[in-house]
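Lab meeting prep.
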Amino acid sequence: MDSAEEIKTLKVEMEDMRKTMATADVGLAGNDGLTEETEASACSLGLRGRDGRDGAPGRDGAAGRDGQPGPQGPIGEKGDIGPEGPPGEKGEKGEDGDGGGSVYIRWGRTSCPNDTETSLIYDGKSSIQIVYFAGIAGGTFYSHTGGGANYVCLPKDPEWGVFTDGNQGAAYIQGAEYQDDQFGNSPFQGASVYNHDVPCAVCHVASRGSKLMIPARLSCPSGWTREYKGYLMTERYNHNRSEFVCVDGEPETRPGGQGNVDGALFYPVEASCGSLPCPNYVQGRELTCVVCTK
């Protein structure tokens, strides 16, 4: 179809539209109703030539699915410390403790000092007081190369567990003897205790939690209490090694324990100059000692 025919057809359609609109206007002005043809034409015209009124908003759609978590953001600055809360209620008082304190061995005596608030821990007897024991000093035989290297305070009444009678060649423990006067240098005054068995007492100080043995001193530092003083003793220099202990300056002996049967031995300790500075130490002089608590 050429352009002239297209223009002619368009004019015919426009004329038809004009007539239809005129007819619709007359119908609307003359009566309340419309013919089906007129109504259809009007609808057709409305769709083609006029904008309709805005309709009501539609309903919200369904919620979408949750997305994936995003990356963690940076840590924020620390906030200010809040005000202190009110104190809580006071709790119930706990049970009384045992008082703590300290324990030491008084070598050469069967009792604890009675002027330092000290009680005997054991003595092998049944008692209602705090009693542990006054016992027997013991250790390894002086010439044995093995065994323990320290003196021990043994109770008078041992308690046995599983045992095999007879010596099996394992380890041994003997009692201890004083050897204070073997070379004529006993530091103890009064009757000789040479070759007598050495007693000991295990003592508890309830009010003082620290203990200290100081060699070469007879007095305690300021603020400390002296439990006892005496002389430093150990095994002889050419025997197998033991430990240095402080033996009370007024030693006792174990009844019935006299006799040269050896065992663990207690010799006075002499100062030996060289790496030990003299003065103030003196060559060959027997050393003192003191046991202190605080």
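Slide two material, second protein:
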Amino acid sequence: MDKPSVKGLSSSNRWCSIAMLEEDESALHRDRLSNLPEDLLLNIIERLDVADAMRTSILSRRWKLIPTMLSKILIMVGSTDNMQERTCDVARANATVLGATRSLLESRSASPCTIHRLCLQFYLGKGSKLIGRTVAKTIAKHKVGFAEFTILTQKELERSSSADRFAYGLQFKLFLGTCPNAFIRLARLKLENLRLLESDIPCILKVCKRLEFLRLDNCDMGYRSLLAVEHPRLRELEIVSSEFERVDLSFLPELTTLTFSYWVSLHDPLSFGYVPLLHTVSISNTALSWHKMLKLSELLGKATVSNLHLGFESEKIWVKPEDRRKLSLVFSKLRFVNLAAISEECDLKWTLFVLQGAPSLEELCIKVCDCLRIWDEEERRKHAYSEKRKDAGTNWEASDFMHRKLSVLKIFGFQSEEKFMNYAKTVMEVAVNLKDIYLHEKPACEEKCAYSHRRGDRYPRTKRHKIWVRNNLDMDMHPLLRLHFRF
């Protein structure tokens, strides 16, 4: 197992040749970098990782002060690119982060420079309190404009049990109670795998008065608990893989962006209260047989969004098509819609209810894919995946309507089959001002995905095939409409 390290601490010293030239101060006039203006020099140094930025201090007396003047500090433990490679030695990993944190922050004792951005990623556990206290001291002594914590747990989501999450929750509560001053300037906070008490999340939001971004990944307050979120400054909220029965966005006057995915609720998992600035909503779920089909008119309530993303993970469609009269309020400002990971088993006509209910819609994106997590039928029954057609319950009859705002239609996973051709023709008929149709091939799958072995690929790649698609869509009858093929 590789030793844990702060990002960049093991990189080679790219400055060693310059350092040799700088042994003699008289060589400064030959070093063009050192003669640069201070603000430009800082801009260059801040583009380096932590280790290389610190190494520049050996180049000369002038460069020695550069690390104490950095306005952007990013210190990360290990690598988040592959969470399976997390270290078992949390103490050693955090010690590395602590060393880098102290080296950069405690050396600034006499520096008048403001830290505009301070971002730390570390493990929850042994050593995290010392990191928090170091940050708290810095915040007390210096101006810190923007601070961010990404707090990891030793076990990632797939390996953390309920007992693990409960233990992590207790650790985090102790961490917050020990050094609350480290959180008072936080603008961004990312937490994972925590089972907290009912009062803990409201307490976190109360301590983090300047919080603008919050991500809760696999966090809850007990199975099917209720969470009410109130914060005067929160702008972005991400809740992923939660076991909340419902999340109430009670009072979030600055909230603009919401990401919500993978819930266990038998009912509507979200409730929108006072969210006057909310414009972007992304909701995704791997719907099982017992998941309720949601009505957007009821789910979104009085929230009028302009950008809506719905993800179905190639499983059961969990949205119920509705009449445009019911959608008139929640879809009144809708401009962009992305319906992602629709199973190839599904018909696409049901998606037209969105177009009919959103008169101001400008762009509609459809993504079709069959990348299932589980293919084995016995395993699917064991995990309660739906045995019915994945678009069961989406029957919808469109009344005659004409759409005047839609200008772009994008279809990912396009195949030159009747279902896709008829869908594109229907949109072309009702969207009288449609300007561009983009036909993309199916999204790339992971190597372990069996999709490519189950179905053929009929994406139009050759010139002859593209001409055939153009002719079948009667493109000559739409001289102002452009058809784009993308690979």
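Talking points for slide two:
The chain is about 25% helix and 20% strand.
The CA atoms of residues 12 and 52 lie 8 Å apart.
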